[in-house]
Design brief:
heterodimer; A: 181 residues; alpha/beta; Rossmann fold; 5-stranded parallel β-sheet; two-stranded antiparallel sheet; 6 helices; B: alpha+beta; Alpha-Beta Plaits; 2 domains; 9 strands; globular; disordered C terminus; binds iron/sulfur cluster; binds FE2/S2 (inorganic) cluster
């Protein structure tokens, strides 16, 4: 078969901590094999601001603000396959612990009543994306094709997923690579 | 009554004694049937349905169905694993099961069963309901948000410890764990470290204070091998080994 053009991959961190991206980078020298096979579109690594048509999109983090929703929808429109990576994309994760409180309570605790606050005031710069009332896992907003759980998923789990996807196989995570924490 | 007392589970012949349930016969033959609300020495509750098996073509719970000669039981089929996965997903969205934030993680039976049935996502919409944590007791705290209503603590406290500390209250979606004390707080009961109910919770709802995060990742109960090999979560009260005696 004639050489196939490289697959195009995009990644984004929404309401996450970038831990999943760090774990992806943790595949170490296997990154060299990976860039032989894929081109990166929008990711925090390339600094491309808007995603173009892609084969694969990886989303880290849940959805906590209006911007997250826009990015996620843009990814869904452009990616043939969209994968939720990490515990926050899976069920909101640690950011979703705020779902037990109202948004008002959270903001007031952080910016008005919290310890050591000198100039109490809730930030309202128009540049700051508006927070949603609750944090949501991404499958509540768009259709997700595959999930890679873990906090973060181990670099080996990323590697298994990526290599098996690139080979057009069904993904078979070994037991030790499947965990929710 | 001279019939041979055997059933088959996934085609394997399994002997049983009169009065045994399918779960008991399976355990005796070292066959794993997923379960959350079942524990060897307690009366079966039949509430979690994780042990759903197909008996002569009909689905039923293995923990409270008596074994009867000639039954053909299906256990490890894709169809049943899918049903069980639906159940673990519902349990995950109903409570507060944010594993990275829970000290039971790695030793949690809900997690382990979900791994076993191949759950990669919670699929449904999360409830994010909130009940206040009870930290009144000197040695234990209770996070009601993680309770899966298995009633293991209810049965252990009532039938083994004879203290009747726990109960379930409410109906349907509103069912929740309550503490039987005038204030509703655990500190107001005679619940204590040596109780069976103190180390029976399969999830992170009843937790011993000052004993958490003591096992490194990689050495926890379910880190390397699945639950069908390792067994139930109650065998350890994670951390208690190192920090206190269980009896
Ligand atoms: S507290 Fe634990 S043992 Fe008790 S009913 Fe809830 S999940 Fe079961
Ligand atoms: S173990 Fe049988 S219903 Fe829970």
């Amino acid at each position: 078969m004639a050489t196939r053009t490289k697959l195009r991959v995009a990644t984004a961190s929404l309401a996450g901590c970038f831990g999943c991206h760090m774990s992806l980078l943790d595949i170490d020298e296997r990154l060299l094999d990976l860039i032989e096979k894929v081109d990166f579109d929008r990711t925090p690594l390339t600094d491309i601001k808007h995603i173009g048509p892609c084969d694969l999109g990886l989303i880290e983090g849940g959805v906590c603000n209006a911007e997250n929703v826009h990015v996620l929808k843009e990814f869904r429109e452009n990616c043939k396959m969209l994968v939720a990576v990490g515990a926050c994309a899976f069920n909101g994760g640690v950011p979703a612990l705020r779902n037990h409180y109202s948004l008002k309570e959270c903001l007031e605790e952080s910016y008005v009543h919290g310890i050591g606050i000198v100039n109490p005031h809730i930030p309202n710069d128009p540049e700051i994306p508006l927070l949603l009332n609750k944090v949501h896992p991404i499958h509540e907003v768009v259709k997700i094709d595959y999930f890679l759980p873990g906090c973060p998923p181990s670099s080996d789990a990323f590697w298994v997923m990526l290599t098996e996807l690139l080979a057009g196989q069904e993904i078979n995570l070994p037991y030790s690579a499947l965990h929710y924490d | 009554m001279s019939q041979p007392s055997t059933i088959t589970i996934d085609g394997q012949t399994v002997p049983f004694q009169e009065g045994q349930t399918i779960m008991e016969a399976a355990l005796a033959a070292n066959i794993y049937i997923p379960h959350l609300c079942y524990q060897r020495d307690l009366t079966p509750d039949g509430s979690c349905r994780l042990c759903t098996v197909t008996v002569n073509g009909r689905n039923t719970s293995a923990c409270n169905t008596k074994a009867m000669a000639g039954q053909q039981v299906l256990n490890n089929t894709q169809e049943l694993q899918d049903i069980r996965q639906t159940l673990t997903r519902m349990l995950f969205v109903e409570g507060d099961h944010i594993c990275p934030g829970c000290t039971k993680t790695g030793n949690c039976q809900l997690q382990a069963v979900a791994y076993y049935v191949g759950m990669l996502s919670s699929h449904y919409h999360h409830f994010y309901s909130y009940r206040k944590i009870d930290a009144s007791h000197p040695d234990y705290f209770i996070d009601f948000n993680r309770c899966i209503l298995c009633e293991l603590c209810v049965r252990a406290s009532r039938d083994v410890d004879h203290k009747n500390v726990f109960g379930l209250s409410g109906r349907g979606r509103k069912t929740h764990l309550v503490i039987n004390s005038p204030s509703g707080e655990l500190a107001d009961t005679d619940f204590a470290v040596g109780d069976k109910a103190a180390f029976i919770c399969p999830v992170g709802a009843i937790l011993r204070k000052r004993t958490r995060y003591t096992t490194p990742i990689g050495e926890r109960l379910y880190d390397l091998q699945p639950i069908n090999v390792v067994g139930d979560a109650q065998q350890i009260h994670a951390g208690a080994k190192r920090h206190g005696n269980q009896n």
